Amino acid sequence: MARRRAPRAAPEPIRATSMWRVDQVFLSRRGVRVEVICSLVNDRGGLRNLSVVAPTDDPHEAVRHAARFVAGKGNVSSARQARVRWAREQTTTLQDELIRDEALEDEFQDAFEDTLAEVRDRMR
Asked: Which secondary-structure segment (H or E) carries 54?
């Protein structure tokens, strides 16, 4: 007698409209430029990273450049409480890994919100 399989549940569809938020931002030097990696999470627990190499060696300008890049994506809704840190390779002591750069966090937040407001204005 053939054994019957239990009916499979349909896989949950991928939501194309999933909104993302910036959780952490990591900086690292790449020669004379700064690479910025933004760690994004969505409302469903998904995780992805966006990486951009800023055309400058100034960390403040690099963070602003990355914020404009990420906010311009269209499906990143927020960057509140995003933590900005230097990547592990850039730290010299274990204590350096724990230090957040609050000035850079403010720069990122301001540039992100400004760009997001511009994007929303264009969509109206």
From this structure: strand 47-54
Tell me the C-alpha distance between 101 and 90, whole Å. Answer: 13
| Domains, in order of start, for the chain | 20-123 (3.30.420)
b/e burial code for range 76-104 (CB count within 10 A of at least 16 → b): bebbeebbbbbeeeeeeeeeeeeeebeeb
Which parts of the chain fold into alpha helices (H)? 59-71, 94-98, 102-123
| pLDDT at residue 70 greater than cutoff 70 | yes
Q: Which two tokens stand for residue 50?
A: 């966006």
pTM of the model: 0.76
Judged on CB neighbours under 10 Å (0-12, 13-18, 19+), 70 is buried
Are 27 and 34 in contact by the 8 Å Cβ rule? The answer is: yes
Mean pLDDT, rounded, for 92-105: 71
